[in-house]
Amino acid sequence: MKKTLRIRNLIYFFTLFFIALSGFAQMPIFKRYYIADIPGLGWLAQFYVTHYIHYISAVIFIGFATYVMVDFFFVKIKYDKFSFVAYTKIASIIGLIVTGTLMMIKNLSGTPFSAGFIIFLDISHLGLCMILISLTAVDLIKGQIKLFSNEITK
Amino acid sequence: MKKISRREFIKTSFATAGTVVASSGMAKAANAVPRREEPLATLIDISKCIGCEECVFACQESNATKFPKPKKPFPKMVPTSRVPVEDWSEKQDVTDRLTPYNWLYIQHAQVNVDGEEIELTIPRRCMHCENPPCVKLCPWGAAKQEDNGLSRIDSDLCLGGSKCKTVCPWDIPQRQTGTGLYLDLLPSMAGNGVMYKCDRCYDKLENGEKPACIEACPEDVQIIGPRDEILKQAHKIAKEIGGYIYGEHENGGTNTIYVSPVPFDLLNKKIETGVGKPHLFKVKDLMADGTNIAKAMIIAPIAGVLAALGKIHMQSKEKK
Fold this sequence. Notes:
By secondary structure, chain A is an all-alpha fold. Helices cover 67% and strands 0% of the residues of chain A. In chain B, 32% of the residues lie in helices and 15% in strands.
């Protein structure tokens, strides 16, 4: 079990790291602020490359999230074990998957959504990401998350 | 080698083609008010263009109210070396390239057709891709595509990050510093103005009018109509003149279709290309790989469910 949890944590960490990094790279900021000039990070200024990395990370993340969700319902963890912050994180992740999937559909050929709805998707996707990152950062500072550990935190 | 005038060439070589177009259903369709809901494309018959720039001036006049009105002095950018000021407000009369004040210009190419040295002139502007990267990859939704196939940039929302230009295969959008939403947000830290390009006169189309460049052309170089009909017409003309088509497959297909009496790779060698001066290379579908990954996305939740069920099955087996 411990080994499984460690692998799960690692997948979760690396997928979220690359999905967030490539997501922020969708904005033209890494070249402007010289981050793409750092050796090995030049790809951050290549919009098509970061687009593919974001998509591939999303495929892995959605597969992983589905696995965890199904596992969660069968394991039947008591709901009151989760804190408000944990519920907010879960809601953010679900929101990110939903808005992200709709944005992928938007990027297919055609105009399935209105311009206003696309702006809503763009801003809510970024907003949900910022909520998730902020809560995770607070938990990291408080020591409630130990990366690469075998523990399940609330 | 005998040198003939542009107009002479048109009159002699393409008189038949012109008659066919004028008598066809397409000409009638072009005069009708296009329906907004279906993708419309424009056909640009290069062999008809005389390079008079009527379309260029009509575009400038018709879109003058949309042009940038930058506030000066411009905010100090951070970092200065990476965020160049792009100011075209003092050069609004430039017509030999694309600028925020000039969304259409004429390219010139000296070519040889059947032993005759002729000059071809090519109106260049946004290609209005069927799946436009500028629209799909804009991080703010400032660029939008309409049901009638045109793509345009909302100058009230654009922050001028220029991503649309970077992802555009032809580098079409052009930036003007000192205007737009970024001035009200973090003017020094994010954004750098607004990106401008041809919007195919979306407001005129909404009113059932033709785009200014089409309306003003004295030679009927351009027509607009449903994309499938435009393509049929393009192939018909190409067959008649032994010509070539550009835009049907470029970047997965565009809503601007060119027909030329000479191959486009030859034209591309003869035109001046560079900043604000788009090429005529063949362009692969830049959104195709992303689309393929997106389609593969459907596998992800299925794999996740199967993996979880497999794990649960194994655990229940172990318990027994």
